[in-house]
Amino acid sequence: MKVIRTDVTPGSADFSKPDAGPGRTGESGEVFLHLARRTAGVASLNLSPRPGDVEGNLEQAEEALTRLRGEHPSLRWVVLPELFTSGYTGLTSVHRYAEDAEEGPGARRFCELARQLDLYIAYGFAERLPGTSGPSGVADSANLVGPEGVILTYRKHHLVRETGEDRVFVPGVELPTVEAGGVRVALAICWDLGFPEVVRGAALEGAELILAPAGWREPYGTQYDLSCAARALDNGIFLASANQLGDYPEAHFGTPGHVYGPNGDRISELTGPAAVGELDLEVIGEWRNFYGSTLSQGEVSGLGMQERRAPGGSRLQGPPEYMSLAT
Question: 3-class secondary structure for 273-302?
């Protein structure tokens, strides 16, 4: 017997209570179930931050987020570009704008916006690591904030040598996942998307949605789009990435980020700087059943957790195959 689900109802972020109604039987014995599918909006907000203008960039984000929320009442998750608060440019001076992940001006402003707008917002910033000062001790980081405050800080793992990131930033090694709005969420940053093991590690820890701030320059826009689609398809999950746009002293950024479904297709439409799509968690299981899951049952249920020590002695924990690549 084949069961076919119909009728998607957008606008609710409660994924835990599917509402089955009367069904009907097709000519070949299929059972059609009428379900009020719970979906919610996710957006990639491709903005153009001004170099070094932290306050101006925060105002730009507030205006764009407020407008976007009004236009899309079902919106639940939004991702902004990499290093958004300072702009991805002039990396040798980016330490001047580095801030604490929880108490910095960007964190305070975005937490307030998340409370006001009832959103989960991922944004990129230069993070001042505890106990450091000056040019050293800065990470290329992203925060995920919600109505409850800062709930996740991620530090970019794969720094781009060709642009000097490895001479400016401390690489990250941890790969946290959290529940945000009823969905398991993890973060990645730009060039991390070029490495399959980052998103795979998050998926093995249960991530259903990856939010990925980016500063992906031209002429590699096609590769940016392909990397986003591939990481979604690799793992049968949703992925949303936002790119910085505009001409800057070091580079041109011209390809907007989008939202991708578990089958690797774009599921968002671009209006101005925002690409907005609808997330339906049931699609993950349906796609894996139809296409085949790349996360094999043995791989997931058999995962042991290994511990390693990061540089500086902090304890890391994660799936074995990811931890072998983490440092």
Answer: CEEEEEECCHHHHHHHHHHCCCCCHHHHHC
Average pLDDT over residues 122-140: 95
Summarize pLDDT for 91-118 with one digit per residue, the tens. 989 999 999 999 999 999 999 999 999 9
User: What pLDDT does 296 receive?
Assistant: 64
Query: Could you tell me the strand order of the sheet in which 259-260 lies?
Result: 177-180, 183-187, 209-214, 238-243, 259-260
Contacts of 51 (CB under 8 A, 6+ apart): 86, 87, 89, 90, 248, 249
Q: Among all chains, which residue has been given the structure tokens 């101006």?
A: 56
Give the pLDDT confidence of 278-295 residue by residue, as tens digits. Answer: 999 999 999 999 999 988
Contacts of residue 251, defined as CB under 8 A and 6 or more positions apart, other chains included, come to 89, 163, 217, 218
Structural domains for the chain: 1-38 (no CATH), 40-288 (3.60.110.10)
Tens-place pLDDT, residues 203-244: 999 999 999 999 999 999 999 999 999 999 999 999 999 999
Distance separating alpha carbons of residues 86 and 54, to the nearest angstrom: 5
Q: What is the number of helices (H) and of strands (E) in the chain?
A: 8, 19
Query: Contact 62/85 with Cβ under 8 angstroms?
Result: no
Rounded Cα distance, 45 and 122, in Å: 10
